Amino acid sequence: MLLGGAVAPAAAITEDDLNLGPQVVKTDDGPTGYSVTFRYKAPADVQQVRIWGEWQFSNVERLAATRQSDGRLGADWQPGDTIAAAGPGFFPAFPALDMTLGEDGVWSWTSPLPSGKFSYRFVHDCGGVQGIDGCTSYPDPANPNWANSLTPTGAQTLSSVWVPSHPEFPTYDLDMQKPSSAERTGTFEHREYVSPESTNPVGKHYMAVYLPAGYDEDRAVPYPTLYLSHGAGGNEGTFFVQTLANDLMENIVAAGRAQPMVIVTTNFNGIPDGDAGYTRDLKQNVIPFVEREYNVSTKAADRAFGGQSMGGARAIGLLYNSTPTFEYYGLWAAAGGGNPNAAQVDRMKQMRGIIHVGTGLQDTLGNIGVNSIARAKVLRDHGLNVMEYNTNGTHTWVAARPLLQDFIESAVFRSTETSIGFESVAGATWASATVKPIGSSLVAPTGTVEFRDGDTVLGRAPVSADGTARLRLGPQDGPSATQVAAHYAGDALFNSSASDPVPGPDTQRPTVALVSPTTAGPTSTVQVQVDAADAVGLAKVVANVYSGSTLVRSTQSAVASGATTATHRATLALPDGIYTVKYNAHDLAGNVSKTGAFAFSVDGTKPTATIKDGASYTVKTGETYDRVSFKLYDAQKVDKVVLNGVTKDLTNNAWSDVNFIAPGTFGAVKGANTLVVFDVAGNTATYSFTLN
After folding, report:
1. How many Å apart are CA 17 and CA 511, to the nearest integer?
2. Residues 560-584: pLDDT tens digits?
3. Beta-ladder partners of 513
4. Fewer Cβ atoms within 10 A, N terminus or C terminus of the chain?
5. What is the distance between the alpha carbons of residues 155 and 134, in angstroms, rounded to a whole number?
6. 423 beta partners
7. pTM, whole model, 2 decimals?
8. The listed CATH number (3.90.1570, 2.40.160, 2.60.40, 3.60.15) that belongs to domain 608-691
9. Cα distance between residue 689 and residue 611, in whole Å
């Protein structure tokens, strides 16, 4: 059910022209460029009004050294200051300051203020030097917040004012804390749920739920949920009113650095048995209620928990003892908690999300700041995924805001997982990485993946819409990668991640050498020999012969048992012509060597010898000759002639002559003679004749 109610009543406001509430004025004067005037109408019988606000400041270095605040107000703000209370009391420790009653019956107080969101409230006729302990507090009726009237729990007796930053007087960069725009403001709901753990009220308890702008109860992808726990003295309204959880989330979403989430704030008041009772109530009552009533994911990967101060102690208890309930934990200015034991560490090592630890660096309350830094180191030393973010500040909600901001911007619902595999496509080897969010998401990770072999970067590839990134690894001439890992760089919405290194695939090309042919020819027959080698194992050696672009012979030898060396031989009979042999080797991984090529020509036609006519060349008597001459021809050129074993080299022309052969010349003899004609390809033609 939805709840409403009232807290200590404020004076009714009937005057419309009194300019009640905070008046933020751009003064263009130092030290901050802005001042705020608070105008408040108290009941007529009130004799004194004081305003309490989070606006005391101190130099950070002096605060760290002395553990005491300078206690300066806004008029004395200085660069390098942080907000730090100097007043008495544990909480709130900021002072209450006297307001001035005007003739119009309005109480007012004016001060320069730096940029930021300042909580404030009023007290009437409150004794004491500065403090407001024990006095009734009133929010500003002219500037209410949604939690002022919650009942029976959750009420916040606070109002707040936003002061922008002046460009000529820069103070703090707090744009993410400003009130979210109207179109980016969601819905608050105050919910009652059944709680057997609760003793006040008995059997039921309360939570606040913030539904983000544009919340869709029918969205196909359910929303992630951020659960938050207040500190001592707080309630379910605290994280919204004082830590600005809704504004931070909406502004970060608008900046494109987070996805919308449902925020649930709990109340541990009235839940006995400390961390154990709170944990039972959260796991058995709160989470089931939220997941039943709202369109939120039921997966632990889509749940986060954060707590401040005593709420930080609750977060530590959940982290150590109920680790799988959430995937993201925020431990901020945590009061207590101790260090984990071995079993707890083992459980936390199964987390895929993030442990976020932070504090105000000048938080000396119970040594919280020092202890937080030490706790982060202990968790890191155990090998856990710790993200630490600290800020200048003391034990205040103002210091808690940047911790929550960093949790939303840098940690929650951002974790990814990256895996790697290999595939062979068309003779090439590819590394393929897959990047996925660990939880539910409307969008997929984008950006790049870097592939590494140890410290050596093999290359980078973009992440496609399906979450994959592919890099061609081979074949290559150099040695194969040994241990390959994929490193996702992250983007505006997702954090980086890396796969485990895996043995790299065989990407080294085989090597080949052409042993034959090695001359351009022409040759009458072709003897092809290709030698190949591979570091891992060969599959086959190939030699194909082309005439122009046409394949005329395809030859190959399979390699038995994946031998690392092999020889392919082939004897080819080819028609006369000009050819190219193209050769390569394939290994067992599918890598192909570079393809070599060698051009040669084939001539299988014998040369011819024709007896030349004419008495000056040839004199014939019957079937014998007194003198004879020959005209020689070969399309691929005549090389030489051999007459009765005597060789005569010619000039390697297509046409040639051997003239005036008679006994006693060029090996010729009386009687039978044999002439052998050779072309450059080695083809021969034999002619016999008889000389007188």
Report:
1. 92
2. 988 999 999 999 999 989 999 999 9
3. 531
4. N
5. 17
6. 430
7. 0.81
8. 2.60.40
9. 10
Task: Give the CA distances from residue 147 to residues 40, 210, 619, in Å, rounded to whole numbers and listed in that order.
Answer: 19, 12, 135
pLDDT single digits (tens) 3-27? 333 334 444 445 667 999 999 999 9
**What per-residue confidence (pLDDT) applies to 655?**
95
| Residues in Cβ contact with 65 at an 8 Å cutoff, skipping those fewer than 6 apart | none
CATH superfamily ID and name for 177-198+208-268+298-406: Alpha/Beta hydrolase fold, catalytic domain (3.40.50.1820)
- Distance in angstroms (rounded) separating the CA atoms of residues 372 and 360: 9
Q: What confidence tier does 128 reach under pLDDT thresholds 50, 70, 90? A: low
pLDDT band at 1 (very low <50, low <70, confident <90, very high): very low
Strand 354-358, strand 526-533: pairing:
unpaired
- Provide the 8-state DSSP code for 282: I
d(CA 538, CA 528): 19
Most confidently predicted of 120-134, 437-451, 511-525, 678-692: 437-451
Strand partners, 551: 546
Question: 287, 294, 188: which is closest to 246 by C-alpha?
Answer: 188
Return d(Cα 36, Cα 119) in angstroms, integer: 13
Confidence of residue 130 (pLDDT cuts 50, 70, 90): low
pLDDT at 87: 62
Residue 651's SS3 state is coil
Widest distance between CA atoms in the chain: 162
> For residue 60, what are its two tokens?
């950070």
How is residue 567 written in tokens? Answer: 């020889």
Residue 653: CA count within 13 A, CB half-sphere: 8
